[in-house]
Amino acid sequence: MMRKPVVGISYKTYVNTVDKATELVKALAEVTTNEKDVEKFVFPSLGVIYPVAQALKGSEIAFGAQNISPYENGAYTGEVSIESIIDLGGTHVEIGHAERQRIFHETLDMIHLKTKLTLEKGMTPVLCIGEGVRLDNRAERKQELKKQILASFGEVNEALIEKVILAYEPVWAIGKAEAADAAYVHQTHELIREIVKESYSTELAESVRIIYGGSVSKDNVYEITSHDDVDGVFIGRFGHDPANYKQILDTVKQVKLKG
Ligand SMILES: O=C[C@H](O)COP(=O)(O)O
């Protein structure tokens, strides 16, 4: 089955002013004019999501939130509601990033509620999964990822899950000079597809997009994406420069759409 390749980028909390954030996304929009073959999304720093939404209007780049409240609305001081993201025209929601789990103590229960809410609202969750330390033992790695996947979806209906993008981010490879080595990434993507097949269905396993994140750069993206089970990448720091972003995007197109 042909799965649409994906290139996402998160600005985490690196680019936080209106001028800088809009300048950056406009530059990304410029280098992706008329590019329709790859699904592209940006997660701006939450405080500048409104101007970024405005700046991306009419572009080929989707946007969304790096995090949302697990509850739609109500007495939840300090949270950002999915209602606002929808109202702004957002389509994607990042859920369960390693930094949210480690620094902000986000639990699998929270991740489940956010995933469920996002799917019920018809949006695309970019659900982050990944082991904390390198696990060379295949079975151990599979067990850990399976636990995270099953807990995140819980009782959510398989028909809804189809929309998800699974972002495999080995925690030990985030924010580093180098990504996880390609062989390890490829093997893990195979494992994740196996988990989806065994836990849900062959159909879902064949249609779900699984992307890799963790120190992706223009130099390692070719090798990382050179495997059928890798549907794209989730970029952090090395995509801040629009020229690098463009090179990463072009490489993904070259690798994934060559046929
Ligand atoms: O959200 C993106 C990932 O955490 C990767 O970030 P990084 O490329 O800066 O390691």
UniProtKB/TrEMBL annotation:
Pathway: Carbohydrate degradation; glycolysis; D-glyceraldehyde 3-phosphate from glycerone phosphate: step 1/1; Carbohydrate biosynthesis; gluconeogenesis. The keyword Acetylation does not apply. It comes from the Bacteria. CDD domains: TIM (cd00311). InterPro entries: Aldolase_TIM, TIM_sf, Triosephosphate_isomerase, Triosephosphate_isomerase_AS. The keyword Cytoplasm applies. Keywords: Cytoplasm, Gluconeogenesis, Glycolysis, Isomerase. It is found in: Cytoplasm. GO terms for cellular component: cytosol. Belongs to the triosephosphate isomerase family. This is Triosephosphate isomerase. It comes from Oceanobacillus sojae. The gene is tpiA2.
